[in-house]
Design goal:
Blueprint (H helix, E strand, L loop, with lengths): L3 H23 L4 H10 L16 E7 L5 H17 L6 E7 L10 H7 L1 H5 L2 E2 L4 E2 L8 E2 L2 E2 L3 H8 L2 E5 H15 L3 H11 L5 E3 L2 H10 L3 E4 L2
Parallel strand pairs: 1-2, 1-9, 2-7, 7-8
Antiparallel strand pairs: 3-4, 5-6
Length: 221
């Protein structure tokens, strides 16, 4: 069960996105609406990651909440499909799209500590039972203790894609609480992405592009 702080953060996320969208639709720029849209800026439209979808069998995993299962499902696909069809990882491609509140799972400990991401999302560190000030998911994939996301990328060919829209909005929410500029926060979060992670304009865009490239779809929670 998610904590009250998670639902409060979710309302804030949706409210922030809605404020910007309403300003665009109405054509009237309130101070708040203009700030949201200008903060989004021109998202990177790099599709380099799509070229990595080369397997005969391929699936995209759509992760939206701060839990550990998206990456685990991708490995489950590799570990079960390979033996079942007598294939190797080269024959398979998995894409994990981390959007909405799953996106912060792709930034490092320093970013979690500086921006108090655990408190923002209602994620507790099991070692302290307090809001996490480190990324407790990065090397804690279920049934694979110690395996990191970067190792999944390097050793198994898993393609991780982060939602730029979520990065912009959630980093901005964290920045407000700490009285840090949203532009600075966004830069910090971009710099905090793990090595090998791709940034797509939005998570829904990435899910669509993966499906256009032949991936079947799996909702990963």
């Amino acid at each position: 069960m998610q904590s009250d702080s998670f639902f409060a953060a979710r309302r804030g996320f949706l409210g922030t996105v809605a404020a910007g969208a309403a300003a665009l639709v109405a054509g009237r720029w309130s101070t708040a609406g203009a700030e949201v849209v200008s903060n989004l800026g021109a998202p990177p439209v790099g599709d380099e990651w799509v070229a990595k979808i080369t397997g005969k069998h391929k699936q995209v995993f759509d992760a939206v909440t701060a839990n550990e299962w998206g990456p685990a499902f991708a490995l489950n696909y590799l570990d079960t499909t390979g033996p079942a069809k007598k294939l190797t990882d080269k024959d398979l491609t998995t894409v994990v799209v981390m959007r909405h509140f799953a996106m912060p799972l792709l930034v490092n400990d320093a970013t979690w500590a500086k921006y108090k991401i655990g408190a923002l999302l209602g994620v507790k560190d099991p070692k302290t039972n307090a809001p996490a000030t480190r990324n407790i998911f990065f090397n804690n994939v279920p049934m694979r203790p110690g395996l990191t996301y970067e190792q999944m990328i390097t050793n198994r060919g898993v393609v991780f894609v982060a939602c730029n829209l979520a990065l912009t909005v959630v980093s901005g929410m964290a920045a407000e609480k700490l009285e840090i500029s949203k532009d600075q926060a966004k830069k910090d979060w971009e710099n905090g992405l793990f090595k090998g992670v791709f940034l797509a304009p939005s998570g829904v865009y990435a899910v669509n592009r993966a499906q256009e490239a032949g991936c079947t779809y799996c909702f990963a929670g």
